């Protein structure tokens, strides 16, 4: 029997999964991400868990094919991180360091790409080889898989689709310093932003006026038929439809998988995106499917395992 | 000694090149593309030339590694064409048919992808592995290479960047049926279109008023300091800058290579594109280079040879 590990490093938690070679998950665990001291303990903490779990499951190193890792930063084709926003790392040769620490083979890639691999393998993209995963969380992230392989880019920055400019008229500035980024309309915070703008300029009655605004309350109100909430959803759908149609013209995916906290709104989200996608997409791309992510927080560790297995 | 052939099928001419394994071109030839009778003679005509040239150069089949082909249509990962606009073919398993006809290994891909491979191998993208080639001709075509491999897409339609929507306000309809496609502003015909609109709404004096309008006359006038021509070039650059910044957010290339008839305008073209690219590109993509294509009409046969050699 052979095994592999999938590791998903997040800003607050590191998730670790142990898998059989066919993708069956045997166990999963989480540990805090110790970002203090420039994140110097992060890799060592992971190695400690790996060793404990191999002991616990009576697995010897020769039975482990390797470790696949997702990292919340651009990662180049050699598994090198140039900089991170939230782990404390500057330049770090993650793949090589982990190989030295464990004596095992290691693959490392950007977490959004790894999550997309996971959804392709065992989630909403199952059976497809051309998948774009869009994560609508605090920001908007993207993972792009073409012909079964993650697209990395020359700076490890492929799939930064939250920063596609979708509005020429925007006056507020995005975190990235530009104006009109998809993230300003389609992230959890972006939806709250456009909801508040609409609530202030439109005096239509709305149940949203009595609630704390969040992506969830907006789409809950849509389900209850709230007209103003529907206007907000249309605006969200319009920008997502424009962005996905542009992405389709570039990489021609079979399916868009929508994940992240905002996707908890459910299938109604997809209706609004697809309506505008159909309007703007090139005819060759009209049949791309849209689906909600299915693996939730496990996408990263499952994708990590897949990344490893694809590169044995 | 081993050899390979690169074949570039165009709507009027088929180009065929014979190469040594290191990429050195030994000879190149052209024959008319016989599109009549649903293009039934096209592959046979090519095979006849291949046989003649092997005789002429005293090469036996066992010395030929294979044939790489570029085709002006979407081509899937199995070398199958689903439909063509200008060759007369419907569904055609080009790779398999050519293998049956020649007894040699064959690779086939979309011509824009193949040209991009050629420019990456021996032209403006030399030394890079992440290249986007944009061909500004009658239409706008795109070939995308990530980590050395062409992106094909689920419908063979990746890189259809002429149909990225770059204007929400356009009232005229693109050939594809949508409005606001990059092709409407940046192709040879698109530049003529925006030039004519500007000449009719702006009464600024211009040497263009006494000339037949073409992409060439517009950029020639720019070089002579013509203010109205400069306005047209700004509009072209604005739309190209927007489109390239979007593409960069998706695939993060090291370099954009600009080819096609419009690129004969020379480096001035790049200045106008880069000005707006810098304005709109995400910070991680700011350092992408821009260059004019270097291989001209040979990009297709050189890229064909590379496609073959990469898939031995």
Describe the structure.
- In chain A, 37% of the residues lie in helices and 19% in strands.
- Chain A is elongated.
- The relative contact order of chain A is 0.16.
- Chain A is α/β, with parallel strands linked by helices and 312 residues long.
- The first copy, chain A, is built from ten helices and ten strands.
- In chain A, the strands form two sheets. A five-stranded mixed β-sheet of chain A has the order 3-2-1-4-5. Chain A has a five-stranded mixed β-sheet with strand order 8-7-6-9-10, with helices on one face.
- Chain A binds chain B through residues 74, 77, 128-130, 142, 144, 146-147, 149, 151-161, 163-165, 168, 176-178, 242, 245-247, 249-254, 280, 282-285, 287-288, and chain B through 74, 77, 128-130, 142, 144, 146-147, 149, 151-161, 163-165, 168, 176-178, 242, 245-247, 249-254, 280, 282-285, 287-288.
Please give a handful of descriptors for the protein shown.
312 residues; elongated; five-stranded mixed beta sheet; homodimer; alpha/beta; 10 strands
Show the helix and strand layout:
The structure is a homodimer of 312-residue chains.
Chain A (H helix, E strand, L loop, with lengths): L2 E7 L3 E8 L4 E8 L3 H4 L2 H15 L7 E8 L22 H9 L3 E5 H12 L8 E6 L3 E7 L2 E2 L32 H4 L1 H14 L13 H9 L3 H25 L3 E5 L8 H13 L8 E4 L6 H11 L3
Helix pairs in contact in A: 4-10, 6-8, 7-8, 8-9
Task: Summarize it.
2 copies of one chain form a homodimer. Chain A contains 10 helices and 10 strands.
Helicity range of the residues of chain A?
A: 25-40%
Largest sheet of chain A: 5 strands, mixed
What best-fitting shape of chain A do the alpha-carbon axes yield? Answer: elongated
How many H/I helices of chain A?
Answer: 10
- Low-confidence stretches of chain A are none
- The total of beta strands of chain A comes to 10
Distance between the termini of chain A: 16 Å
As laid out across the biggest beta sheet of chain A, the strand order is 3-2-1-4-5
The gyration radius over C-alpha positions of chain A equals 20 Å
Largest binding interface between chains? A-B, 45 and 45 residues
Which structural class should the secondary elements of chain A be placed in?
Answer: alpha/beta
Oligomer: homodimer
Average pLDDT metric of chain A: 95
Secondary-structure element pattern of chain A, one letter each: EEEHHEHEHEEEHHHHEHEH
Strand content of chain A: 15-25%
């Amino acid at each position: 029997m052979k095994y592999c590990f999938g590791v998903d490093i997040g800003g607050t938690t590191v998730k670790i999964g142990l898998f059989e070679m066919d993708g069956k998950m045997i166990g999963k665990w989480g540990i805090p991400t110790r970002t203090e001291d420039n994140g110097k303990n992060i890799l060592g903490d992971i190695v400690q868990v790996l060793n404990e779990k191999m002991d616990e499951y009576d697995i010897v190193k020769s039975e482990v094919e390797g470790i696949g890792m997702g990292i919340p930063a651009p990662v180049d084709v050699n598994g090198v991180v140039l900089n991170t926003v939230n782990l404390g790392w500057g330049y770090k040769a993650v793949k090589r360091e982990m190989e030295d620490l464990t004596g095992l083979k290691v693959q490392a890639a950007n977490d959004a790409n790894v999550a997309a691999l996971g959804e392709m393998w065992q989630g909403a993209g199952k059976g497809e080889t051309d998948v774009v995963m869009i994560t609508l969380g605090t920001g908007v992230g993207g993972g792009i898989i073409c012909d079964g392989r993650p697209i990395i880019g020359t700076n490890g920055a492929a799939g930064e689709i939250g920063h596609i400019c979708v509005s020429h008229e925007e006056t507020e500035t995005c975190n990235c310093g530009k104006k009109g980024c998809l993230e300003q309309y389609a992230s959890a915070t972006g939806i709250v932003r456009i909801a508040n703008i609409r609530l202030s300029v439109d005096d239509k009655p709305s149940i949203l006026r009595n609630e704390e605004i969040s992506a969830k309350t907006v789409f809950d109100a849509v389900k209850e038929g709230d007209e103003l909430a529907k206007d907000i959803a249309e605006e969200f759908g319009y920008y997502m439809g424009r962005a996905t149609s542009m992405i389709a013209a570039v990489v021609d995916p079979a399916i868009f998988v929508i994940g992240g906290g905002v996707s908890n709104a459910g299938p109604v989200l997809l209706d609004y995106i697809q309506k505008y996608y159909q309007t703007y997409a090139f005819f060759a791309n009209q049949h791309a499917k849209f689906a909600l992510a299915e693996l939730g927080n496990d996408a990263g560790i499952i994708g990590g395992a897949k990344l490893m297995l694809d590169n044995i």
